[in-house]
Amino acid sequence: MNSLYARSVFFVRDAERALRFYKEELGCKQDWSYPEGGPAWVCQVSLFGFELILNQTDERTSNRAGRGRLFIGLDDDQGAPLIQHLKSKGVRPERRDWGRPTMVIADPDGNELFFWMPMDDWSQLDTQ
User: How many domains, in total, are found in the chain?
Assistant: First the structure.
């Protein structure tokens, strides 16, 4: 069996607002959106090979917005490029303890991206 191709889904209150955050604030690329040509309801963004689907809530899913958390472990050679990218975008992540020091970026709905820095090296990172 080949590896499964999987992506996480974050529920958001307003897909267009979330899309702007991920593209403009974090520098993600928009891969696709549905419906095509109209305001996004569901869309996918990517950055450095990481892919994330953003899904606008409706009456059945309204309580799901902002409840997502995704963990991304970084290899030794991935920390510095990610930090440089975040610095270039003016992103100031939060530093939390989650078993070890963790870099946290929250979207406008409160969905969280958790990163463990290689060898816990925070020397280049400006955090809140």
Answer: 1
The 10s digit of each residue's pLDDT in 29-69 is: 999 999 988 899 999 999 999 999 999 999 999 999 999 99
* Alpha carbon distance 69, 60 (integer Å): 20
**Domain of residue 101, residue span:** 8-57+68-120
Strand ranges inside the chain, DSSP E: 8-12, 29-34, 42-47, 50-56, 69-73, 94-97, 101-106, 112-116
Q: H-type helices in 11-115, by residue range?
A: 15-20, 79-89
Q: Is residue 52 part of a domain?
A: yes
Q: Measured between alpha carbons, how far is 93 from 101 in angstroms, rounded to an integer?
A: 12
Amino acid at 35: P
